[in-house]
Amino acid sequence: MIPLQKDNQEEGVCPICQESLKEAVSTNCGHLFCRVCLTQHVEKASASGVFCCPLCRKPCSEEVLGTGYICPNHQKRVCRFCEESRLLLCVECLVSPEHMSHHELTIENALSHYKERLNRRSRKLRKDIAELQRLKAQQEKKLQALQQWLGQLEHMPAEAARILDISRAVTQLRSLVIDLERMAKELDTNTLKNAGDLLNRSAPQKLEVIYPQLKKGVSELLLQPPQKL
């Protein structure tokens, strides 16, 4: 185990992970740690029933983790994340009837799990955006060819509308990608519930109103033989 560095406090470095402080929290004795690092330390220390500062070993209160890390119902440190209810649970919540049949993850595993899901979803949407842009370019090329034959753009409202629909879909997907990547970067215990909501909002079945039917329609159009004008 790497020894904790006391002099790193002045440099903004977490004594536990030895990296720059992220969402820094202070213990009762004034030492700073990453919130996630200190949460993991508290979880390991809970077996002994005594929570001490990892640096100076002075007794501390779990409340230093912040209100979001303390169960509002039982005033105990949260230790699990319920995927069904999307709530942070303490040990007393875990044995309550409403959660006994639910699937819970440790906070550390939940953070890792949801960060990977957020990143995977953003990669998927980036591929969809690239595909839509390719279809848009092909549709624009076809529209340009039709315009040369017919001379006026208003004679081709259907083709122009498809291009506009694709542009709108790309804009909405880009917005989702920004939200997904920001959430993955800033994910912590307090935002786990929001991560689940964002994954729900960006699920393929929820996006059907944005682009899958559109992609199918445009793809079928592109497979059609050129019209004889």
From TrEMBL:
Alphabetic keyword roster: Coiled coil, Metal-binding, Transferase, Ubl conjugation pathway, Zinc, Zinc-finger
SUPFAM superfamilies referenced in this protein's UniProt entry, alphabetically: B-box zinc-binding domain (SSF57845), RING/U-box (SSF57850)
Protein name in UniProt: E3 ubiquitin ligase TRIM40
Span of domain RING-type: 14-57
Catalysed reactions, semicolon-separated: S-ubiquitinyl-[E2 ubiquitin-conjugating enzyme]-L-cysteine + [acceptor protein]-L-lysine = [E2 ubiquitin-conjugating enzyme]-L-cysteine + N(6)-ubiquitinyl-[acceptor protein]-L-lysine
UniProt key word Zinc: yes
Quaternary structure and partners: Interacts with NEDD8.
First-tier enzyme category under EC: transferase
UniProt keyword Zinc present: yes
GO molecular function term, any single one: ubiquitin protein ligase activity
PROSITE patterns in UniProt: ZF_BBOX, ZF_RING_1, ZF_RING_2
Coiled coil regions in record: 115-149
Domain B box-type: residue ranges: 66-107
Pfam families on file: zf-C3HC4
Organism whose genome encodes this protein: Homo sapiens (Human)
PANTHER family: E3 UBIQUITIN-PROTEIN LIGASE TRIM (PTHR24103)
EC number assigned by the record: 2.3.2.27
Similarity remark: Belongs to the TRIM/RBCC family.
Role played: E3 ubiquitin-protein ligase that plays a role in the limitation of the innate immune response. Mediates inhibition of the RLR signaling pathway by ubiquitinating RIGI and IFIH1 receptors, leading to their proteasomal degradation. Also promotes the neddylation of IKBKG/NEMO, stabilizing NFKBIA, and thereby inhibiting of NF-kappa-B nuclear translocation and activation.
